[in-house]
Structure formats: C-alpha cells, structure tokens
Amino acid sequence: MALEAYAEDTPPPRQQRQRLTVVPVATVTVTHRIEDVAASWAALEAAEIESPGQSAAFTRTWVEAMEIAEDDQLYLTAAFDGEPVALLALWRRRVKGVRLLSWFPGPHVGCNAPLVDAERLAMLGSVERAALWSAMLEKLEGADLIYLKSVPQLFVAGVDIFAELGQSIEAETLYRAQFASWEEANTTQRSKSRRKHDRQQGERLEALGQVSFEEVRGGPEAMPILELMFRQRAARFLAMGVPDPFAEPGVRAFYDATLSPTGGLDVRLQVLRLDGEIVAVRYNIAHGGRLFCLISSMSDDATIQTGSPGKQCLLRVMQTVFDAGYRVFDMGAGFTDEKRHWCNLKLPVRQHYVPLTTLGTMAAKGHFGWQVLRQKLKANKAVMSAVKAVRGRMLRAKGETPRTEGDEHGQ
Predict the structure, then answer these.
(1) For the domain 4-171+349-379, what is the CATH code?
(2) In CATH terms, are 4-171+349-379 and 180-326+383-398 the same topology?
C-alpha cells in the first residue's frame, strides 16, 4: 500500500525557509547484504548519529550475534545525483502471524531512525519527502507491515524531517544532557539544595567503605563487569514485574561481542566500587562527540542502596563526561529521577507505521490503538501499580529467583 495514503494523517511541518528549486530524482537500491551499502553507510554515518542503531558496526555485530538469515536483512538506500541521502536497515520477522519489517536492535537502543543527510532532507518540501520515503519503501516485498519504533522528532531548519514517514504516534520522551563542560552542567542543572542532597548521599555511601570510580574500555576485566551488570538488571526487572529483555536468545551474545577489539564499537563501562566490589555499572557506546548510555544497574543490597550507588555513579559520570570531550550524553527514553535532574534536552519519540498489505493495515491499527491505551494507563499511577504487581507475580510463578551480586561472575 502506498505511503502517501498515510502521510495525510500526519500534521504538516513548519513553514520552510528554503527548499530545492529543482527536486532531484532519487535512485533507490535494495539489498540483503550489508557489505553492498558500506560506502553509503560510511558517508552518512560520518555526520552525527542519533542512535547506536544507526552504526554499521553495531548492526553488523547484532546480525552476527542473532544469526539473522541474509534473506531477512534488508538495506535500502536512496541517492540524489550519486550522493546518498537516506539509508534504512530493516530486519524481517514474523510476529504474531504478521510479517514485520523493523529496526534490528528494537528496544535495546533509546531511539532509532533512518540514517539521512539531514540538511538535504530538510531542503525538500513535504510532498517531496513523502515521495522519497514512498520510493524507498514501495521497493519492499515479503512483509505486511513496516514498524519503525522510537523515531525521534528532529527539526532541521524548522522542518520535522521524519513527519512524512508513514502514520505516527508519539510514544515516549528521549532524554539528553548537552553541555560544553562539567561546570556548565553543574551550574545549569544543580541547585544549592540538589548539591546538598548529592553530598549527603555520597557521605552515606562513603560511611560504608572506600568508594572508587573508573571507566573500563575493554580487556579481560570487562567481561565479568558485564556479567555482574546483567545479574543486577535481572534482579531489578523481576522486582519491577517486567520481562528481562536481556534474557532473550542471542542478546547476551551480542553484548559480549560488542567488547571485542575487532568489532568496531567503542564501548565504555563506567563502574562504581565500594571496597573494591562493584555496586553500580553504566554501559555506554561512544560515537564522535556523543555518548549513548544503553544500560545501567546497581546493587540490590538494601544497606548499600541507602547510599544511592546508582545516582552516585551517574554524578561521577557527569563530572567527567563533558570534560572528556563529549558534548551530548544520551540517557535513553523513559522518565527517571536521574534524567529529570541532569537532562536539559527532551525529544519526543514516535512509533511509525507503513502497512504494505491488508493484514499489515489491521496490525498497524491494533498497535496504534494499544499505544493510545498505554499512554492513558501510564498516566494513571494506581492502575500501573496494579498491572506491575500482577505481572510480577506471574513472572515469579514461572521463573527462577535471580542471582544476586554476591554470586560468582559465571565466567
């Protein structure tokens, strides 16, 4: 089904200051091999990316770890006069009977989006951008629905560059801290009372033992840190009453592979220790001037939690990350107190739907309706607490009690 039919449901972008006087014709290619789009990918990735999911190295590592068949990998590129302007990397799967095309990493990144030449895309008019997406996506076969999860709402020169990408609904908020230095972040984000609160938490943690902070970039010590982090996360997910996304087949193999020195990914593990024992971890991927935090964990020991090890770890990250040369620290989507305290940028992220068949249309309408209901449920704290409690009891009934941080690392 043509994309234009769904572009009508999206609000028009702001008036543009300029646009191309002659609209170029896009040359669109589709391939199942990531190697075939290496040059175009490298050219587009050389600019800033919005997500590790837009990284060729990240995608290649995911494909290998998940053992995705070549036929189920689809890479689309569009070029104007031989210059790449857009690239989509999609994974074909069958979900509840629907043949779905979606991002490779799914919820394992805070957001994702087509990799584009943003300035050139913004110079097109709304109709021309819709035509570009249509020219790309109508090349696809063997699927019912294209579902693009958590696409950030990006304005370039006043233009919402992804507004015409199918039908969309706002789903979450993406939180980022953007500062030139720790001094700027500290002055902007921390009030006098907040500094006092952080200091008191730090004193409670230091009363329990010697506190130290380090960043680990790989090597033999990185793997046991990763193992401990996932054990801490498993315990937290069970307590929250939600499924553990890291327990899915292939996911742990992916994260293990990201630590490989030959994988092309710059992984940073930020670690807080108490008397030498790890009490909090943050898993990040660096790309240019941006640092993306994908996972955070902390000890579930009640005594240690009185010192707020997670917040103390993040405080030390903020004290070092901008002076290390990063300008944007991406903390992912979804609200937490830490994000509220530290992040000065909030970007809406949207779910985008492009049905290709009648079944896909039905699936898109159903999922769209669920997103609307989900937002209403999340706005009602009493209902959400009840839902989580029931879900937690169901998980405990069929699952094993997770290990604690006192267990062996399992290497």
Answers:
(1) 3.40.630
(2) yes
Name 100's Cβ contacts closer than 8 Å, sequence gap at least 6: 92, 93, 94, 143, 144, 145, 146, 147, 363
For residue 138, how many other CB atoms are within 10 A of its CB?
15
What span, in angstroms and rounded, lies between the C-alpha atoms of 192 and 211? 24
Res 392: pLDDT: 65
The CA–CA distances, whole Å, from 308 to 3, 301, 302, 303, 334 equal 49, 11, 10, 10, 20
| DSSP annotation string for 366-386 | HHHHHHHHHHHHHH-HHHHHH
- Looking at the domain 180-326+383-398, which fold is it? Aminopeptidase (3.40.630)
Q: Which residues of 285-321 are buried (b: 16+ CB within 10 A; e: fewer)?
A: bbbeebbbbbbbbbbbbeebeebbbbbbbbbbbbeeb
pTM: 0.86
Confidence of residue 267 (pLDDT cuts 50, 70, 90): very high
**Using one digit for the tens of pLDDT, what is the confidence trace for 113-142?**
999 999 999 999 999 999 999 999 999 999
| Whether residue 209 has pLDDT greater than 90 | yes
Residue type, 44: L
Contact in structure between 274 and 205 (CB atoms under 8 Å): yes
**Rounded to whole angstroms, how far apart are CA atoms 131 and 142?**
21
